[in-house]
Automatic annotation (TrEMBL):
Transmembrane segments: none annotated. One of its GO terms (molecular function) is protein-N(PI)-phosphohistidine-sugar phosphotransferase activity. One of its GO terms (cellular component) is membrane. This is PTS system fructose family transporter subunit IIA. SUPFAM superfamilies: Phoshotransferase/anion transport protein. One of its GO terms (biological process) is phosphoenolpyruvate-dependent sugar phosphotransferase system. It comes from Oceanobacillus sojae.
Amino acid sequence: MNKSELINDSLIELNVEAQSKEEALKKVADLVLKAGCVKSAAAYYHGMMEREKNSTTGFGSGIAIPHAKMEEVVQPAICVITLKDAIDWKAMDDKPVQLLIALAVPTEHEGSFHLKLLATLSENLMEDHFVQSLLSARTKHEILTTITGIFTDKGEV
């Protein structure tokens, strides 16, 4: 899959107002629906919430990677939202979350594609320069460039 099919400007939103994890995930679900990547914002939201019940997706350093694999996802997507104010996410480092990198994965892609996507993101989130590039981004273009830059030179995921 080409990285430009996974993320574009319509899947990025800056300075989103949310007071809770639930509210932030509803904003993610609405954005992914608006971009045409899911059939139902409610189903995608519930899928992300079910995942959160298993264990936190709060990766650390102010970043969370909420995700859901489900039939309602019609196109794999990476959605990035920066929050106006950081919120408690019960993250692994106990720090509040300010940036969400949400994944929407169709059931038929849940195997190696999903794991490769998570692995690539996780590996890069261990790199200070990648984290700082995301957290300091002020435009959708800066976020888009940072996220797409972690995938292969061929543009494939």
